[in-house]
Fold these 3 entries.
Entry 1:
Amino acid sequence: MVDELVLYTNPQSRGRVVRWMLEEIGEAYKVEVLDYASTMKAPAYLAINPMGKVPALRHGEAVVTETAAICAYLADAFPQACLAPPPADRLRAPYYRWLFFGAGPVEAAVSNKALGFVVPPDRERMIGYGNIGHVMSTLEAAVSRGYLVGNSFTAADLYVGAQIGFGLMFGTFEKHPAFEQYWARLSARPAYARAKRLDDDKAAELKKAPG
Ligand SMILES: N[C@@H](CCC(=O)N[C@@H](CS)C(=O)NCC(=O)O)C(=O)O
């Protein structure tokens, strides 16, 4: 029997990134939509993610949380989708590098910027991302190559690209041509369009629901 895939999410969350990843993989999956104020903090879900946050993924008995980790897990669990270099391949180096750069420095720098927090220049050495200018120029150079890993699209592009896409939309990323061109290419993928439509429809449905 094939292990069931279940995505725990809310259509207005980082769960959109995992939905895109699942659409790229092309395997059947179930979706459990959680409400921020109620079901996300209820014991049944806290047993899956004690952080009370989405997304989370269950694959049979295995549970994985953290958007970047979920994307990496899915890419390895379904190698036929070719979304990660094989484990022994040297391309695993840039693959890990950019996934972790996205989940660490990019996420922290962009969140701090959104909150108006600026690292005092004399404390940059102790902050993992240093300053947001360095993070952005490093990322800009990386995406200007076309893809982050070798010459093909991987889960690293999906995860980092989704951050760029959201950032351009919400104004936390500056509209540099390199970011805009990279995102235009990624968001033209059919799996992205399918995932976006499914989450947009679910969000509209929840908005209409009474209460
Ligand atoms: N580090 C987590 C962050 C997850 C996260 O913060 N999710 C938000 C939605 S995008 C959430 O569930 N917030 C609900 C809460 O904190 O109460 C990841 O990358 O998946």
Entry 2:
Amino acid sequence: MNRSATFELTLSRFIRAPREKVFDAFVTEKGIKAWMCPRGMGIPQASVDARVGGKYRVTMRSRDGESFTAGGIYRELERPKRLSYTWAWEGKDMPNMETLISVSFAERDGGTELTMTHSGFPDQALCDSHRQGWSSSLNKLVDTLDARGSAATVTLLGAPPSTYTWTARMGLAEKGVKYTMQEAAPHTPEILALHPFGRVPALRDGDIEIFETSAILRYVDEAFDGPHLLPQNIRDRARAEQWVSAINSYLYELMVRRYVLQYIFPKGKDGKPDRAVIDASVKEIGERLPILEKAYGERAFLAGANPTLPDFFVAPILTYVEKMAEGKQLLEPFPKLRAALKAVQERPSFRESAPPQKG
Ligand SMILES: N[C@@H](CCC(=O)N[C@@H](CS)C(=O)NCC(=O)O)C(=O)O
């Protein structure tokens, strides 16, 4: 190892699994293949000779087919308590350094407290990039060993009646990602800890924290296997992003805040909805819906033949609009929009993610 190397990282995780199982996930081919790469990557090859002085080698592959191989030598194997091994990348484009990984496995509350130290980095940038990589890999380790799967690492914080929370839940369900739903209202301390503007939803994946629904679902789309939430060709993907942005910027405020919420939280005289505000919003919604109708063109959904992110953003909003006094009449003149909405409303992801019905 390079003597001038001084940078190191330490990460810990509690895993609801016995120490032996966690230890074996580091030193068996099957175990390593299940987790030892960041989310969004896979391990096509791993070889292991788990004895002191024995070698291991791991090849990681990104979705776009790029491969990265690391390997090293076991220095210490004390199952199920301690493990240490060297770590070096192969290939001329990879950092030329041999580093050391030490892992301890302690029993706690019927599970395992894992502490990993990776030392010997020649600079902070390499140390930080490895911290990110290991942090994401350890999320996968937890998912694999905990009976709850990814619901052990992925938590969505939000308020089920909120349209954005509904959209985020739909995206997670479409992708087939198990998650824990933590109910939290906007501007509460739990939300403010993750979202500096206090809005819902926010997502935590291990120690990775994300706010803004489109960023959350972008992350979910790239980090997990499962059907794509965005179109795969450049033009349609740009179109999908365009409509997500347009819905957020030009439709949500009008349809939800200035219309639906006027009924749900009336602020007019005698606790009734403010008629003037509602009338003005209805007029404006009537002017904007033709833009949305036109957007479908010959497509069944906003960015192509299949529902993608913009459809998951707009459906909860239009579902609320549809339920208000003027809603049916407002949507009536727009057959393409109604057909797309109905198709999304019929998806299991939409129904499973819907806010609980009152009464
Ligand atoms: N741009 C945010 C918007 C989130 C948002 O506005 N959420 C609403 C609930 S649907 C909220 O938190 N409202 C509380 C507030 O505005 O104070 C996103 O995409 O996540």
Entry 3:
Amino acid sequence: MTMTPAPFRPRLQAVGTVDAPFEPMLQADELPLGAMRRVTRGELDILLVHTEMGVFATEDRCPHMSAPLSIGELDGCVVACPLHEGRFDLSTGETVQMPTTGGIDADGAYWPTWSPAGRDPKVDPPGKKAEARRLTRVRRLRFYPVRISDGRIEVALPRD
Ligand code: FES
């Protein structure tokens, strides 16, 4: 299978990456199909994912509370966060499953705190912590342009 970049969605392009220079991240054979890897450049942690659709590059930060998605689980194009069970679709940038802490999704709809099936819904305690949970916004993923060049995975990163 030849490695290719995944289809790119300019609407969800990371800030500062239009006309940004491409930088080498990994050798192509370091990211087999189904693998996720973190690559760090300065203060930026990039998540590289090799799916049947191609290679995606996003920030290695969950759109909920910034946990590293690279140590989560990958199922097709859906990555599951290791912290609050949020699931995010790399092929669309959308939330598939709201994190267990609840919050506001990318379109502004409120999702309550998750409760196990068959149990009464959890009630958030009053106070700042509950308010912070309620107002925490789950963003869409942001994507970095990817290219495969001379057997290397390269990603366009914002200039300093
Ligand atoms: S940090 Fe990922 S679901 Fe909360």
